[in-house]
Structures are given as C-alpha cells and as structure tokens.
Amino acid sequence: MVDDQYRGLLTDREQEILARETAVSSGYYARVVSRVRNKIRRLRDDVTVLQEHHPELYEELRETVSDESD
Length: 70
Hints:
By secondary structure, the protein is an all-alpha fold. 71% of the residues lie in helices and 0% in strands. It is elongated and about 40 Å long. The mean pLDDT is 90.
C-alpha cells in the first residue's frame, strides 16, 4: 500500500468510494466528499506557493491537471 503522506489528492479508499466501486452509506459518502473538498481548499494554498516561489513545479502541476481533464 502507498504511504498516504506521498499520495496524490485522493487515497485509494477515497478513489474507490467516489468511483462507487465500494458500497457505503450515503452519510459516509458525504463525509468523503467533504474531506476531499477540504483537501482541494488546502491544495489552493500549495498552488499559490508554487506559482510564487517555484514556477517550474507550478507549470508541471498545471500541465498534469490539464492533461488529466482533457
């Protein structure tokens, strides 16, 4: 199993739940969605730091996210 400290945005379990590969209660699903929203908010701060202090890494992140959303 991958150490969550070095994971991307989602844990393996969150991926399963959001992809509906695992049956969970609607309440638990809502908690996972909320947890991911909080991670996205924190990610915004990380992106700001990259933009201001390490533009090469920011560009790499932007390209990765853009490639994934196409």
